[in-house]
Design a protein that fits this description.
Layout lengths: L1 E5 L1 E5 L5 E4 L8 E3 L13 E4 L2 H10 L4 E4 L4 E5 L7 E6 L5 E4 L24 E5 L12 H14 L4 E5 L4 H11 L3 E4 L1 H13 L7 E2 L9 E6 L6 H10 L2 E5 L7 H6 L3 E3 L7 H11 L3 E5 L3 H10 L4 E3 L11
Parallel strand pairs: 3-4, 5-6, 9-10, 10-17, 11-14, 11-15, 12-13, 12-14, 15-16, 17-18
Antiparallel strand pairs: 1-2, 2-3, 7-8, 8-9
């Protein structure tokens, strides 16, 4: 039995079955896709163990369809990260239970429930993300961040540009802007994400497609985070007097504001922060922990100090002895 980081995380079971999670080009015997962010989706046509919503979102966001299958050895639990995201519980024929979180969030937010570790049962081996796996990343309470954002939207007498990832943050921002009484506009890339979520969940997004018309003082334009430094954004801000707001967990660091050239930032995140990651590990209480993504080494070190057998997965390692 091994856990490797290659193209995705590969879990080899005692009978030789290779379960490959969140790979660009899934090999192995069983593919798992935890959610429909681009860095977790296969690049071409694929079939994977995933939620129905992730299959729909993956198909909508790519040129190739993402098919869905089930596997008796794999159970999926809500991961709380984005719509459709799942934690994968893999049961080995020898009884060992693996928990692969993908990206995870324990906080309930709007129409999303957070991951509840108590629903996972006994876990022997945990493979967890560590995006914010450094003690410096501790987010304010979610409701406090939402209240601050709503207050800013209410007080700002100008059009606003709200930047967040097209899947996850952008849906939250559309609903926040609507709560603030703004006319909500967004791009085709975000609207393509909205449609499957509306179909699968009891949630609506009252947004129109932005077609380059002038922005009025009560308009809110929701945009993908990656477009914040695009030249047309600077021209739009100059022409309309729009103010730009960036929404990310990275906003706990002041440099995030300057990197994105934002007027204001809010630490609104779809990930677990450091305290939440530690509390999740404590609740699951696994025999072995592997960390990946972000601050993997820091989180593994901190968990080791807490008495866990924890190791940061290294990209390209081929045996556990190579750590």
């Amino acid at each position: 039995m091994t856990v490797r980081l290659r193209d995705g995380v590969e879990i080899t079971l005692s009978d030789g079955t290779r379960v490959v999670c969140d790979a660009d080009d899934p090999g192995g015997d069983v593919a798992v896709v935890t959610h429909a962010h681009g860095d977790h989706l296969p690049e071409g046509e694929a079939t994977a163990v995933c939620s129905p919503l992730t299959a729909a979102l993956g198909t909508a966001r790519r040129d190739a369809p993402l098919g869905r299958v089930t596997d008796d050895r794999i159970d999926l639990l809500p991961a709380g990260h984005v719509a459709g995201s799942r934690v994968a519980l893999v049961t080995d024929p020898d009884g060992t239970r693996y928990c692969y979180t993908g990206d995870v969030c324990l906080r309930a937010r709007d129409y999303l429930d957070g991951f509840d570790p108590d629903t996972a049962g006994d876990v022997d081996v945990l493979v967890t993300e560590a995006t914010y796996g450094d003690p410096g990343y501790a987010f304010p309470p979610h409701d406090e961040v939402v209240a601050d954002a709503l207050a800013w939207l209410d007080e700002t007498d100008a059009p606003v540009l709200l930047f967040g990832y097209a899947l996850g943050r952008a849906q939250t921002l559309q609903r926040l802007a609507a709560r603030a009484g703004r006319r909500v506009l967004t791009t085709d890339a975000v609207l393509r994400v909205n449609d499957p979520i509306t179909t699968h969940l009891d949630v609506a997004f009252d947004a129109d497609e932005y077609d380059s018309h002038d922005l009025g003082p009560t308009d809110a334009l929701v945009l993908p985070l990656t477009s914040a430094r695009a030249g047309w954004i600077d021209r739009l801000r100059d022409a309309t007097g729009a103010l730009a707001a960036g929404f990310s967990g990275w906003a706990v660091d002041d440099s995030f504001r300057f990197r994105g050239n934002y007027d204001v930032t809010f630490p609104l995140s779809d990930h677990a922060d450091f305290p939440a990651l530690v509390s999740m590990v404590d609740a699951l209480d696994p025999d072995r922990v592997y960390t990946q993504h972000g601050e993997a080494a820091t989180l593994a070190t901190r968990l080791t100090r807490r008495g866990y057998d924890a190791t940061a997965l290294r990209d390209g390692q081929s045996t556990l002895g190579e750590f």
